[in-house]
Amino acid sequence: MKPLRILAVAASAVLLAACATNSTESTSSGTGGSAPGTGGTKIGFIFVGPKDDYGYNQAAYEGSQAVAEAYPDLEVLTAENVPEDDNAARVMEGMIRKGAKIIFATSYGHRDPALKVAAANPDVVVLQQGNIVDGAMPPNFGTYFGTVYEPVYLAGIVAGKATRSGKLGYVYAFPISQTLDNINAFQLGAASVNPAAKTYVVNTSNWCDPAKQAEAAKSLLSQGVDVISQHQDCTATVIRATEAAGAYTVGYHADARSLAPKGWLTGSEWDWGPLYTAMVKTTVDGSFTGSPYNANFRVGLKTGDNPFVQSPYGPAVTDDTKKLVEEAKARISTDGSPFLGPVVDQSGTVRVPAGTVPDYKTIESIDYFVDGVVGKIPAS
Description:
The chain has helices at residues 56-70, 86-97, 111-120, 149-162, 177-193, 210-222, 236-244, 273-284, 319-334, 360-363; strands at 7-15, 24-29, 42-46, 75-80, 100-105, 125-129, 141-146, 167-172, 198-203, 227-231, 248-253, 264-270, 296-299, 308-310, 343-344, 350-352, 373-374. Helix 5 links the parallel strand 8 and strand 9. It folds into two domains: 7-146 and 272-299, Rossmann fold (3-Layer(aba) Sandwich); 149-269 and 313-374, Rossmann fold (3-Layer(aba) Sandwich), CATH 3.40.50.2300. By secondary structure, it is an alpha/beta fold. The radius of gyration is 20 Å and the shape is globular. The strands form three sheets. The protein has an eight-stranded mixed β-sheet, with helices on both faces. It has a seven-stranded mixed β-sheet with strand order 14-12-11-10-8-9-17, with helices on both faces. The chain has a two-stranded antiparallel ribbon with strand order 15-16. It starts with 6 loop residues before the first strand and ends in a 6-residue tail after the last strand. Residues 1-21 and 30-38 have low confidence and may be disordered. Residues 1-17 form the signal peptide. Residues 41-304 form the ABC transporter substrate-binding protein PnrA-like domain. It comes from Phytohabitans kaempferiae. Pfam families: Bmp. InterPro entries: ABC-Purine-Binding, Peripla_BP_I, PnrA-like.
């Protein structure tokens, strides 16, 4: 991620009085010229983990600071380490009492608290990151996300070409649809250039538990895996363990090349700033209701305003591999998809018929592993 020049107006690490959690709150504002129409609006962002996790929360925090820079006459309130339970609702309500009129709830598990807060505060726009909500939603509520499985598929191509053992590894937290999408896309990308490649999975049942991550990486490496990727909020532990073992790394959420100077291949990074800023603009302009953002909004390679970028390549990636990635990217950007059928699951059942491009909702409802993934989905 590119560093952002932000002037901190006030920053504190105090416990929020409204809840018994370890969440911390701070305030920032931007340094650029004035932006019309904000009228002193305050914006709140909540994150499930720390803002410096080399991963998901760091990317979301940097996006919040891009908003502060774009709208210097408003205050941006942020709270870290906000659990995915009723505590999240209390933190959001606390921000609203301070004057927040826009709330970004940035974790998958913040959906239900965000819906609750939106229903109780019809004059506040609440935006929830990562879900699709079936049925009617409050007019002041919206969900949004990016089709990050697309760059994950591209990274799978790189992994499939780099592996010598044919064994790839994937450390993940929970078997939610977003995670399954990424694991499946990674395997499908690898298999598209290396049909013998298989992806071995280990779940940690935690978004950020370094001890469990270290054990997961050790388990994969002991099985002969020589490329490891992950879907964890904090990524440093897995990357360092992989680098120490002389294996290759595919990153996720943020640019962590500095942690793996020899084994880094590529990765997928979130760049939320432009999308966050566009959603804020729609809200302060008074046109949120009826806009794309109060629906189940998705952006990606096909829309042209995707909130992610592919990480730079590492030294081991060949020009031939880069060419394969560019060709696949072009296909996806037009009328393709990482999940272009036929897609077959582990049991041999065809889940996506040949020639079919599934829509976003279908992809985000995936509840299976594709053929080539080694491991079972834990029982819920």
